Structure formats: C-alpha cells, structure tokens
Amino acid sequence: MSGPVYQYRFMIGFVSTTEPAPDATPVPTADVDRSDPEYRAWLKEAVRKVRAESGRSADTHLLAFPLPEHWGIDLYLKDESTHPTGSLKHRLARSLFLYGLCNGWIRPGRPVIEASSGSTAVSEAYFAKLIGVPFIAVMPRTTSTEKTRLIEFHGGRCHLVDDPRTVYEVSAALAAETGGHFLDQFTYAERATDWRGNNNIAESTFHQLRAERFPEPAWIVATAGTGGTSATFARYVHYMQYDTRVCVPDPENSCFFDGWTRGDPDATSDAASRIEGIGRPRMEPSFVPAAVDRMMKVPDAASVAAVRALEAAMGRKAGGSTGTGLWSALRIVAEMRAEGRTGSVVTLLCDPGDRYLDKYYSDGWLAAQGLDIAPYTRTLDRFLATGEWRE
C-alpha cells in the first residue's frame, strides 16, 4: 500500500497571491445610483436579513471521536453539517454575501454567480433566495446529483461544464453577460471572513474547548477547497498567540500540496479532485500557504476508508472531505501516541454523507474509479483497536 506523504515546511519567501487579477475585481456599474434612497433601503434590508439569519443559527456541535481515555489524547470533529444548508460552506456563503453587499457589488434584481463543486453553491442559493436575487451555480458535470437538487430546491440554477478548470472563466463570462456579480469564493474566501473573531469557526472551536481537559489543541486539521477555513484557523491561532499547529490535508488530483512543498504559487493539476469540496487544479488566491504549519497528501481511498470508519465509530455518514481530514487527524494522534505526548486534535465534519451515497458509499463507484479501500481500512481498524499505526 502506498501511504500518504507528510511534509513540514516553513514557507519563507513564498507569498500567496491574495489580491485578484485586475480583471477579476468587480467593477461598480452605472446602472445603480448608490445614493438612491430606494437602493439604500434595499441594501439595508438585505444586510439585515443576512445578519438576522446568523442570529437565528445556533453554533455547531463539537463531537468527541471515541478514543481510549488512557491514551491521553482527545479527538474532536466540529460538526458543520448542522448548518441550515448542511455544510461548512454556510459560514462562507454568509460572509461572501455580506462582503458583496457591503462593497456594493450585489444589486437588486441582478444574478449572483459562483464557481463551485456544489456545497458552497447550495449555501449561496439559500442566501440569494433570502435576499431575493437570482443565483447561478457553475459546476463540473461530475458534481453529485443531490447537490444539484439542493441548489435547485433553494431556487438556484445549475450551469454544468465538462472541464472543471473552466468554471472561473465561465462564471466571469456569465456575470458580464447578465450584469450580475461573480462571488468568486476562490479569491475572496480568506478576506470575507473576519479571522480575528466575530464568532468565526476558529473562535467558536476554542470557546467550545475551554472546559475540556486539553483546551488548547495541539493540532487543528482543516482541508482546503478555497483555503479560507485553514487561513481563518491559522490567522486566529497566531492572533491569539496559541501554540496550536494547523495541518492542511490535500487529496489526489490537487496542486496545493505540491505548490506548498515546492514554494510554487503557479503549481497546477491537470485532473479534477474526486473528493468534492476540496482540492483544486490551481493555487487559489484564498489559500494562504505561509500561515499553515504542515500539509499531508492523502490518497482518495484513505479518505473513503475514513468516512466509513467514522460511520462505524459514531453512526454518522459524512462527505469525502471529512474523511480526508479524519485520516490525517488520526495519523497525527498516532504520532502523538508514539512520541508519548498528550493533548487534543480537532478536525471538521464538513457535510453529510447523504449527498454522496452514489459515490463514497457505493462499492460500484469505488470499483469504477479503481479505488481499493481495504488496506486503509485495515490500518484504521488496527489503530483504533490497538493504538498501532502501520501502513
């Protein structure tokens, strides 16, 4: 069995491109007079509705993964599947809509457009419907049918493309044709979220840990699609002066690991990620490599084995990105145990598995993809039973 690759690296001199290309920056158009009382009233009401939605949403649970207490290591999953739209991307969509509204980019009656692999678009369709604007999701044709159904359920329209690498250009073109706004999560995710606090995912996690036996985790494991979540965690940790480290696992067919390891902001991948929601063909502007401490390259079969192990251990189905993070988190637990260290580790339950019954929970899909999860399942079963990690 070929195991995952692990790397630590200080990214001195490697600065992520965090400003969009000039032609990617939304340009205010002359069709809306921003001093017009009617527009100002619409804007105030739209912002009120989005902020009120946040006030109605309780925080997400921090679930304890069952490990032997005598190991002296606690593992938690921040369950983002309990958001109204069922995923971690609900937080991002709310931030992106507030960012677009307050910048004057989202306008009454004009469509909002997004390039997405599905979950972000589900959440954005929800917020578009909330403020009464049209929504178009530009997605790979391989996106799960359940995500497509959910986008349409919330009133959105799906625009499917054959080549995942074209989602950016197609989204920008649709925005230009319709006079709408391209939200561009892959550029704006890391800046639309207030990483210093304001109940972001990092502040919430540390608040929930405050009464645990290890309130300051040794590691936080956050997978990357846009890179916004890992950036929020890493920045918050540095801002609060914690000793916590941040690890970003990367699936197959993604360039983040190679770009981070080589210090190459121009790294690319020719194939599309099979783990929906994470892994990208280019180094996204919202991925901030210099902020994180470690990356892991995780085989897709290991990710699937991990989500099935999660169901066996906790009775919860989750998406493949959760499996990528859980595999890495358990590997870190094994390292800590082998080194005689105690502490806590946090990873994310990103979205529910019922969106992927025809993929990660389908043996037929695994066979069609040439994925053999048996060796990784044995590794996980052995570790959870004996504390011994062998690949």
From TrEMBL:
Coiled coil: none annotated. Keywords: Cytoplasm, Lyase, Pyridoxal phosphate. The modification N6-(pyridoxal phosphate)lysine is found at K89. Its EC number is 4.4.1.1. Pfam families: PALP. Its cofactor is pyridoxal 5'-phosphate. It catalyses: L-cysteine + H2O = hydrogen sulfide + pyruvate + NH4(+) + H(+). InterPro entries: Cds1, Cys_Synth/Cystath_Beta-Synth, TrpB-like_PALP, TrpB-like_PALP_sf. Residues 66-351 form the Tryptophan synthase beta chain-like PALP domain. It is an enzyme of class 4 (lyase). Belongs to the cysteine synthase/cystathionine beta-synthase family. Cds1 subfamily. HAMAP family: Cds1 (MF_00868). A cysteine desulfhydrase that generates hydrogen sulfide, H(2)S. The H(2)S produced by this enzyme modulates the balance between respiration and glycolysis, and contributes to redox homeostasis. Probably eliminates toxic levels of Cys (which can induce oxidative stress). PANTHER family: CYSTATHIONINE BETA-SYNTHASE. This is L-cysteine desulfhydrase Cds1. It comes from Streptomyces albiaxialis. The gene is cds1.
